[in-house]
Amino acid sequence: MRTLGNILWFILGGAVMGLGWWLAGLVAFITIVGIPWGRSCFVIGLFSFFPFGQEAIARDELTQKEDIGTGSLGCLGNVLWFIFFGWWLALGHLVAAIAMFITIIGIPFGIQHIKLAAIALSPVGKTIVSKEVAAAARMHNAQQTVSNLRKK
């Protein structure tokens, strides 16, 4: 089902959306200052091509290591992104989701637009992985938290 959803999504707008994100990423890289946002644009672009079966997850949640995008600079980057780009990109995805929810056939596509809206709000410090990998990372983190609580 994921494959069929991804094929339909790609043909019916996902390819254009992903290429648009990648173009924005190239522009951001050219500015040098925009490199962190450019990386995020490439991540969102890849997610836009094939969103079914994928999930956005914080890199520190996945790797259990902080990096420049998951620390205070990443937070600042997300604040700047939200102010200048994030809110209107997320709004666009929410409007598209509402339009998709009008038909029964469009409901899965509406759900994907909501996922894209969520990552469009604050993409710095996030990466895209399969749903299974995200669930395994969260389960591992939960088990570590329980283990740490039991030691106290």
Automatic annotation (TrEMBL):
Name used for this protein in its record: Inner membrane protein YccF
Organism: Pseudidiomarina woesei
Chief location bin: membrane
S-adenosyl-L-methionine among keywords: no
Keywords: Cell inner membrane, Cell membrane, Membrane, Transmembrane, Transmembrane helix
Cellular compartment(s): Cell inner membrane
Bilayer topology annotation: Multi-pass membrane protein
Residues covered by the Inner membrane component domain: 4-54, 76-126
Entry's transmembrane regions: 7-31, 37-58, 70-88, 94-111
Highest taxon in the source lineage: Bacteria
NCBIfam families, per database record: PRK11770.1-2, PRK11770.1-3, PRK11770.1-4
Keyword Membrane in record: yes
One Gene Ontology term, aspect cellular component: plasma membrane
